[in-house]
Design a protein that fits this description.
By secondary structure, the protein is of the alpha/beta class. Helices cover about 50% and strands about 10% of the residues. The chain folds into two domains: about 10-155, 3-Layer(aba) Sandwich (Rossmann fold), CATH 3.40.50.1970; about 160-355, Dehydroquinate synthase-like - alpha domain (Dehydroquinate synthase-like, alpha domain, Up-down Bundle), CATH 1.20.1090.10. The protein has helices at about 25-30, 45-55, 70-85, 95-110, 160-180, 185-210, 215-230, 235-250, 255-270, 275-280, 290-300, 315-325, 335-345, and strands spanning about 10-15, 35-40, 60, 90-95, 110-115, 125-130, 135-140, 150. The longest helix has 23 residues, at about 185-210. It is globular, with a radius of gyration of 20 Å. The structure holds nicotinamide-adenine-dinucleotide. Nicotinamide-adenine-dinucleotide (NAD) binds next to helix 4, strand 6 and helix 9.
């Protein structure tokens, strides 16, 4: 066994069907009686449902959360929280709504209860990405870690199949990169492998029947494990590429992860053989990059950057950006090889698997 360091994350997690009903009791345990409920405009009805459930413990809702946590939206929400004298926030939704809760907590130290409805995993990470004047910056601080996360499988049945699949790929990307993180550990390896296994089993079931209870339950469980990986260790090339491309070309977050993950793993796994073995086991065999590319195609998810809004003349700029201030990576990040990889991903071609593996 190699030496390792492991930092566990604080926070309480409830998981199950119908667990939303436990929200008032959780608020009471935290001593919160003036909660502001957060959502995106698309989930305003869910936010109202949460307000009703909380009764006298809710002071209102702010339903303006947006992707990539724009600072101007945070300022609007802060003004509402201040006017209503909120003593905590409840976020119901995906990574965008969780991001708003974290941005409020960063500035106010208000307690957060998060009720995730996608598989992004942000609710268990100390990471906050914010956008100011079109520039996205990311920081990691324990100040933004939620106090309580309530996973209620019932709330995920209506997540459209397309978003379920891409959000599931987003989650698996956290686990895949955790398996070769330089600050990894045996505990993180276990969470990562089990998270990928659960999602690989769940996603085809959900695509076949979006109301498959076992599939939905496995997917939410897998997303929690994968989120814990993201929250515990550093990420590498794949996440760097997704952030660069998302920020530079305004590409949809989960779709970008889905297209790039097979290619980034094709690039990295020859330099990360233990990660390759664990991923392959989690997938029931095969070369992980190819298995993921085939699964995305089979489930109707995007497999080409050109289909999700990336212009062809952006490939060179993206390759340049990827090699500037690169994250630590198991294989050296070389511009020409990255450019070739991005071109294949742009065109929707299968990932190249390093010869050493074939
Ligand atoms: P999202 O939160 O932007 O949700 C997309 C849309 O789907 C929204 O309109 C939302 O209201 C709706 N939606 C969510 N759940 C639904 C459901 N069950 N049924 C129907 N509609 C539903 O998407 P996301 O992929 O969850 O989050 C992406 C954002 O999260 C990005 O800004 C990304 O940077 C961030 N993120 C952050 C971390 C972190 O650790 N900080 C991790 C992952 C993602």
């Amino acid at each position: 066994m190699k030496p390792f360091r492991y930092q566990s994350l604080p926070g309480r997690v409830l998981f199950g069907f119908g667990t939303l009903a436990e929200l008032p009791g959780e608020a009471q345990s935290l001593g919160l009686g003036r909660l502001l409920v957060l959502s995106t405009p698309a989930q305003a009805d869910e936010a109202q449902r949460v307000v009703s459930l909380l009764g006298e413990r809710a002071v209102g809702a702010f339903t303006g959360a947006r992707m990539h946590t724009p600072v101007e939206v945070t300022e609007q929400a802060l003004a509402v929280a201040h006017d209503l004298r909120a003593d905590g926030v409840v976020a119901i939704g995906g990574g965008s709504t969780t991001g708003l809760a974290k941005a409020i907590a960063l500035r106010t130290d208000l307690d957060q209860i998060i009720i995730p409805t996608t598989y992004a995993g942000s609710e268990v990470t100390p990471i906050l990405g914010e956008t100011d004047n079109g520039r996205k910056t990311t920081q990691s601080t324990a100040k933004v870690l939620p106090e309580v996360v309530i996973y209620d499988v019932d709330l995920t049945f209506d997540l459209p199949v397309g978003m379920s699949v891409t959000s599931g790929f987003n989650a698996m990307a956290h686990a895949a990169e955790a398996l070769y993180a330089k600050d990894g550990s045996p505990v993180v390896d276990l969470m990562a492998q089990e998270g990928v296994r659960a999602l690989m089993t769940a996603l085809p079931c959900i695509a076949h029947d979006p109301r498959d209870a076992l599939g939905r339950s496995d997917a939410l469980y897998g997303c929690w494990l994968c989120g814990m990986c993201l929250g515990t260790v550093g990420m590498s090339l794949h996440h760097k590429l997704c952030h660069t491309l998302g920020g530079s070309f305004d590409l949809p977050h989960a779709d970008t992860h889905t297209v790039l993950l097979p290619h980034a793993l094709g690039y990295n796994l020859s330099a990360a053989l233990s990660a390759r073995q664990r991923l392959s086991q989690a997938m029931g065999g095969g070369e992980p990059p190819r298995v993921l590319h085939d699964l995305a195609r089979q489930l109707g998810a995007p497999i080409a950057l050109r289909d999700i809004g990336m212009p062809e003349d952006g490939i060179d700029r993206a390759a340049d950006l990827a090699v500037q201030h690169p994250y630590w990576n198991p294989r050296p990040v070389e511009r020409d090889a990255i450019r070739a990889m991005l071109r294949r991903a742009w065109a929707g071609e299968p990932p190249v698997i390093d010869q050493a593996l074939s």
